[in-house]
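Q: What structure does this chain adopt?
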Amino acid sequence: MIEAVFFNPDQSRKKWYGLAGVALEAPLGVQSITLKGSDASGRPVTFSAQFEIEARKTNIRVPPEYTDPADEEKARIAREAVLKTEAFKALSAEVLWGDSFLRPVDANIQLTAAFAGTRRVNSSQMQTHRGIGFGAPQGTPIKAMNSVKSDKEQLNKNPQ
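A:
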């Protein structure tokens, strides 16, 4: 499968960064990725690397009042799901973040859910987790992982 990967410069580190993804349905085990392109002078450049995809399973027990929201809340969730689906369809050649990504909580707080892990809530499989989770106590300060550019017009149409 051939997909475009956009690279953006990090002037402070004098490096280029690109973000490539793996299909959630990709088989477990060792996989490889090859990037082909050209440098500033037009010479061909190829980079290959191997990485491992691991299975992670989590079964979370949550009281039903938290897993069966009221109709008003279900309607809000549905509206936001449409916005999120549209946002994930968008690709941009422009970098949308400012610096390197930072950990949102202190280093002593354990990672509890990895990106793309399968979640089970009350023994029912839920959609694949598309974020990361940390086991922080209630009230723990959370930092933004990065600065981003947002679509202010879209946000104004859908206030929180």
